Amino acid sequence: MFRILQSELYRIRKKPLFFFCLMLSAFFMFAYALTFHYDTVKAAGLTGGIASLNDYTEFLFSDYSLVIPITIFQLAYVAEDYQKGIHEILFAKGISRFDFFFGKLTALWIATLFYLIFSFFMAYVFIMAIWIKQTNIQISFVHICGYLILQVLCFIGYSSFLWLLSCLLPYRNIALAVMFFLLGTLYLYLTKISTALNLEYSLYKCWIVGLSDQMEINLSISQLPPVLLTIAAYIFLPAGAAYWIYRKTNLRKQERR
Q1: I need a surface site. Which of 15, 19, 37, 204 has the fewest CB within 10 A?
Q2: What is the spatial distance between Cα 150 and Cα 220, in angstroms, rounded to a whole number?
Q3: E strands of 19-172, at which residues?
Q4: Is pLDDT at 78 greater than 70 in this prediction?
Q5: Burial level of 17, CB count in 10 A (0-12/13-18/19+)?
């Protein structure tokens, strides 16, 4: 499995699409910083309020801008294996399904982690550059870092779900269309249901993408056990289901028995 992990990380590093997604994310982070500055910082100054990096951190997860690039990359990258018949080539060389599956999944988790670290870094570089003359900003780095770690775990869970979708629909265009349809449905309807029912604890409150801003920094500590339980379900249940589907998929043309 370690050899697969190494080779997949090398392939990801050499993919122009991955660097395109990083640049797209940087553009979104720049737009976030400008939007937050003019909509929140200036408004707070006019009313005598205090803008905070806490608010900006939650603002980063207020829509799908962080999600779109990594979704495009992962679905396109995994679909390439089916198009080029990479599974059969590796099976012919004696690589087991278990090693390939979890080696590639781990590589995708690492790529997601790198993508998020890069995005967070660019986000705070842009906002600090814009706020360079601001003095009335409250910063709680401990809470911000803890909140970002939870969000990273959420995105790793999202990566597991994309892996499951790729096993179900090993076609890039179809998988992308289905995924963006699901994201749109979640954004437009499920959040409204959660709000209408006034649920104190809901899967939607700690949902992986788009709704994660409802997991406020100040509440994340007091709600940590259910939040971690929810995130663990996001990570391991899709991965387990994907592995079961992958074992049943007919990829045995050249697999050594």
Answers
A1: 19
A2: 9
A3: none
A4: yes
A5: middle
